[in-house]
Write a structure and sequence with these properties.
heterodimer, A: 122 residues, mainly alpha, 6 helices, B: 238 residues
């Protein structure tokens, strides 16, 4: 577990340095994500060794958003001032974006005849 | 016996108390989520945030003090983002075969998200810094903050709007896409990743591994695209 964490932190660090040095429009961790894929491609034997700890992290992805989420409370006065407008804007545009994105995906997939992936859970 | 007030004043200064409270609130939220038979409205992040906000209010603790303890959990967002590379690697073959559908969904979902939020907000009289903070709301928080700042938005307000978008998206995605009868896990995952970043991705992983992997890709690609689209959209629709 510690070895996997060290690898992940090293890739994040490399991503952070690359993002800043090359002034990429991506944050360091997203560059680290790409570096992890490349590492797995170069050394496929690594994949099974890092899988348990990596999946452990991803299983609780929600937890890591909690501290920043509590920060919403600090903005309640400003959010309340534009409450209705912000709520309608966020709700409306998020519904639209999800629906349009998913429909565009399925339309193009059907057009090009790529098989859909419908197995598994609910 | 020591005065409880002294114990409180000691604990309320260190990180231990609020770190513990954050994990406990999340476990309660997760337990409620399981008890609801994994219904999407019982979002564990939302429940944990409400519990902690109430606790901070009752104890009169400010956010900076809370964050002293919670920062250790917050830090893990970075490594967890890197970890998304593994499901991406696992699905690389499927990703390659879905290149054109993904490109279409990315362009459509991202531009509809940015333009519609600006148009609706403007119709409600929202303008200036708040509008600029709202434009990148579908992107992962660190990228959104960078984009908003370049357009004259406020960093912490941007973070709050990004999180609200993620929570709302995670709650509505399952009923919405069921109603639209979209059953392709790749489409479902990719669309929520583009519209509702990491919180949407966390929701996708709760439902299906393929959906989770595609959601992570959608989130990553939209981080790049929003950096380009948001300033343009703000010029034309802001």
């Amino acid at each position: 577990m510690i070895a996997t964490l060290a690898l992940i932190l090293t890739l994040q660090l490399a991503g952070e340095i690359a993002a800043r040095a090359l002034s990429l429009p991506l944050p360091g961790p997203v560059v680290g994500l790409i570096l992890l894929v490349l590492t797995c491609l170069i050394r496929p034997s690594l994949v099974d060794r890092i899988r348990p700890a990596t999946q452990g992290l991803l299983q609780h992805l929600s937890l890591f958003f909690v501290p920043a989420g509590v920060g919403i409370v600090a903005h309640l006065p400003l959010l309340g001032q534009h409450g209705v407008g912000l709520a309608v804007a966020i709700a409306g545009s998020t519904l639209l974006a999800i629906a349009v994105g998913a429909l565009a995906f399925t339309w193009v997939a059907r057009l090009l005849n790529t098989p859909a992936d419908e197995g598994g859970d609910d | 016996m020591t005065d409880p007030v002294l114990i409180w004043s000691y604990l309320s200064q260190g990180p231990l108390l609020w770190l513990t409270a954050t994990l406990a609130a999340y476990l309660l939220g997760d337990a409620a989520f399981r008890a609801s038979r994994r219904q999407s409205w019982a979002n564990p992040v939302l429940i944990a945030i409400i519990l902690l906000a109430l606790l901070l209010g009752v104890t009169g603790t400010d956010y900076a003090t809370y964050f002293e303890g919670a920062q250790f959990v917050h830090f893990m967002l970075g490594p967890a983002t890197v970890a998304l590379g593994l499901p991406l690697y696992d699905n690389l073959r499927r990703v390659r075969s879905a290149f054109w559908p993904m490109l279409a969904a990315l362009l459509a979902g991202s531009s509809v998200g940015v333009i519609s939020v600006l148009m609706i907000a403007k119709a409600f009289g929202i303008q200036g810094a708040v509008l600029a903070s709202l434009a990148p709301k579908s992107t992962t928080a660190p990228v959104a903050i960078g984009i908003a700042e370049r357009m004259g938005g406020q960093p912490t307000l941007t973070a709050a709007l990004v999180l609200l978008t993620g929570i709302f998206g995670a709650i509505v995605v399952t009923p919405l896409l069921n109603a639209l009868r979209i059953r392709d896990w790749r489409a479902r995952g990719f669309a929520i990743g583009v519209a509702a970043h990491g919180i949407g991705t966390a929701r996708a992983f709760q439902v299906n591994q393929t959906a989770g992997a595609f959601s992570g890709i959608g989130m990553g690609l939209n981080a790049v695209l929003t950096a380009i689209i948001a300033p343009l959209a703000l010029t034309f629709f802001g």
